[in-house]
Amino acid sequence: MSGVRVRGLRIDGPEGAIVRGLDLDVAPGECVAIVGESGAGKSLSARALLGLVPEGLSWSTEALEIDGASAQSLTERDWRRLRGRRIALVSQDALVSLDPLRRVGAEVAEPIRIHEPAVRGGALVGRVHDSLRRVALPEPERRARQYPHELSGGLRQRALIASALSATPAVLVADEPTTALDATVQARVLALLRRIADDGVAVVFISHDLGAVARVADRVVVMHEGRVVETGVTAEVLASPRDPVTRELVAAVSHEPLGRAPRADAPIFTAEGITKRFGERVAVDDVSFEVRRGRTLAVVGESGSGKTTLARLAVGVTRADAGRLRFDERDWTPGVARGADRRRVQLVQQNPWGALDPRWSVGRTLAEAAAAGGVPRAARRSAVAALLDEVGLSPAFARRRPAQLSGGQRQRVAIARALAVSPDLLVLDEPVSALDASVRAKILERLLDLQRERDLAMIFVTHDLDVVAAIADDVIVMKDGRVVDQGTVSCVFAAPRHPFTRELLAAAGLGTPAE
Amino acid sequence: MTAVVAGRHRTRPGAVVALSLAGVVLAVIALAAVAPGLLATHDPLLTDVRAALQPPSAAHWFGTDQSGRDVYSRVVFGAGRSVGIGLLATGLALVVGVVVGSLSAVAPRWADAAAMRVVDVLLAFPEFLVALLVVAVLGPGPANIAVAVTIAAVPVYVRLARAQTRSLAAAEHVEAARIIGVPAVVVHGRHVLPGVLGAVSVLATIGVGTSILAAAGLSFLGLGPTEPTPEWGLMLSAGRNLLLQAPWVAVFPGLAITATVVSVSVVGRILRARSEERGA
After folding, report:
1. Considering A272, A445, B260, B266, which has the largest number of Cβ atoms within 10 A of its Cβ?
2. What CA dihedral angle connects B67, B72, B77 and B80, to 10 degrees?
3. Is residue A154 a contact partner of residue A188, using CB atoms and an 8 Å limit?
């Protein structure tokens, strides 16, 4: 058969085996997904298919066939003849993968120039436009003359796929091609990949997102610590996972709405018609909502919809241009948010890598927060241990520096720091979007427990509707700074009013697509 | 996404050799600066006209100058003054730079703009020319040389300190500290200034070499210490007329300057590469 056939792929690094025996068959017209957590070895395996294993690692296969020809023990020169012509790679970040100084057309033409030098002039231009049309890039003639920075993220990813496909390879390896994209854009790129497979290309799809996998892949290979733990038809594996690793992955992305009873007490935080402008641009436009103790409001939208600005307004670090925010029956502005009141509303930031002082140990960071919360010097050490325990970390973490922590551990520390000053309202700005699905599920669980124990009110900013289902009671959906849909999670999910909400739900595989 | 794990930080063997060589040179110079008596073989000021302009020998390792003074001992005794002026100037420039730069970063916009325009003007002239101008105004002398070199070096430190302060003040972890309710001044002292100092002091380790060179240059022009004080720039100046008859009089102080400047830059550059790797 043609397509890809791999037997016993092993990749060894200086600290032991990274991939321990991967078998993979992908027929033409089929899309096979390799899924797993960060560090499972899926990305390296994908690169090995193109002979692109980084220097310093050794790799071997018992058999490797690409498009019907053996690709075992090839020289770099032979590999170059294969790449682009027989097998091509689409990587995660189109902004880095496309040359910023070259027009899209030149980028797409490159594989053809290399592998089919006979195609030149008008014929080459025609092929480039065909390739761009194949990925459904609107106005291919105009786009071919543009530079990557002139395209949006989704169009850039399409252009990258077009350049990978231009020399008509039989195999396409897509390494997390949609991770950096907004949900609705992601859905369109996934549909494109499915169509490419249906056109007869063998597609290898690398992802940690089972939602995406379910939409494109015929079969799925689940990897864990370099080993294949489960393979099978996608629908069957997702419906009845056999291996505990797969079960955890599946559980992490399929949440039922919480369905907690609404609270009847007065809201602790309300926003009435708040508006924030940056120059001409209206980032937040006439937004109103309320949050009650022990309950969570989710703020959903795509990048640029004003979610983060809304979070910063709620925390009281930015001043609203119009409308009013009220916290605990008083007006809430940066002027009020000082001293002891400052501590009552806390923020957990999006980026766990920047949230902690790189020079400070975790213990010192948390002790600073405890001191700000009024814990006397003598009790700080035990307060730090208690905080670490609350977010599910052992006291030994106090001695570590941020560089020695994983993304999930950092985010736990950031949450612990926010909790150290005993806030009444916690604002979380995309706290789990940088994390793997199973780490995400554990942190969400922890947050729900903390909410119950401390009767915390939470505003949870996210672009992921599955996360909304897992943690929120109410939701507002934002588009271009405006609220387009609002209500309890179960109501909005069951009966979305705005077409944008329907599109988001469809993109997440949660709702009825727009008619 | 699965990061491709690269090997741990590997120091190139060349860097190790360069670093240890530079370290040895600096250690010797530091010893000479602190306790010249331990290394010198003669009194640096003792003249002996009968032994004038002798080439290097077992008695006089670097030879003697036109007054018969031992060049080796003068180089050893000169270390303190020559390196001292450079260090002092760099230290002053660092302190002034961090204070002015970080204040400028948080100052009202008009004050910031005014300070930056002064910095722009200073940066528009070559450093050595600024130093010369300052000495011309203040008059010659070792202390004035240190001040002149400081003023010439300071704009770069101001710029760096200001940029670092601004980017750190907007960093997420700094905002996080403010949001937990730590007072703004305390946040600045705890989270911003240490980072600024780290970046600026790396620049300073490289700048020490330039400052030593500038100070020696001013002495060479006769604007610093006067005869018979042992100082490398001054010795170089005295030896330049004898370059054909008695090259050792000028060559050894010149070598001392070169070795110091090169060693300091090597160490400075390696330190900078390390700190960039850490992402500081």
Report:
1. B260
2. 130
3. yes
Q: Which residue of A has its CA nearest to B279?
A: A358
CA distance A515 to chain B (A): 35
CATH of residue B180's domain is 1.10.3720.10
- B52 in a structural domain: no
Do the domain assignments include residue B84?
A: yes
ipTM of the complex: 0.72
Contact A63, A7 (CB under 8 A): yes
- Tokens found for residue A157: 């990813």
| A43–B4 C-beta distance less than 8 A | yes
Cα–Cα distance for residue pair A16/A14, rounded to 1 Å: 6
Q: Is A176 on the interface with B (CB under 8 A)?
A: yes
Do residues A33 and A196 touch, judged by C-beta distance below 8 A? no
Classify residue B183: in a domain, yes or no: yes
Question: Is any Cβ of chain A less than 8 angstroms from the Cβ of B28?
Answer: no
Least Cα separation, residue B177 to chain A (angstroms): 8
Q: Provide the token pair at A99.
A: 């040359």
Distance CA A244, CA B143 (A): 75
Backbone angles phi, psi at A137, to 5 degrees: -80, 120
Query: Where are the extended beta strands (E) located within A118-236?
Result: 171-175, 202-207, 219-224, 227-233
Comparing C-alpha atoms, which of B210, B204, B111, B110 is closest to residue B161?
A: B204
Q: Which domain holds residue B205?
A: 70-278
Q: How many residues does chain A have?
A: 515
Calculate ∠ Cα A150-A153-A159, nearest 5°: 75
Distance CA B22, CA A511 (A): 68
Q: Which residues of chain B lie closer than 8 angstroms to A357, CB-CB?
A: 173-174, 177, 191
Residue B62 C-alpha, separation from nearest chain A C-alpha, in angstroms: 48
DSSP per-residue codes, B29-53:
HHHHHH-HHHH-SS-TT---GGGTT
Q: How does pLDDT run along chain A (515 residues), one tens digit per residue?
A: 688 999 999 999 887 888 998 999 999 999 999 998 877 888 889 889 998 888 888 888 999 999 888 888 788 888 988 888 899 999 877 777 888 899 999 999 999 999 998 888 889 999 999 999 888 888 899 999 999 888 888 888 889 999 998 988 999 999 988 877 778 888 888 999 999 999 999 999 998 888 888 889 999 999 988 889 999 999 899 888 899 888 888 887 777 777 788 888 889 999 999 999 988 888 999 999 999 999 999 999 888 888 989 999 999 988 999 999 999 888 998 888 887 888 999 999 887 788 899 889 999 999 999 999 889 999 999 999 999 998 888 999 999 988 888 888 899 999 999 999 999 999 999 888 877 777 888 889 889 999 999 999 999 999 888 889 889 999 999 998 999 999 999 888 888 899 999 888 887 776 544 33
| Chain B contact for A267 (CB, 8 A cutoff) | no
User: Is there a domain that residue B55 lies in?
Assistant: no
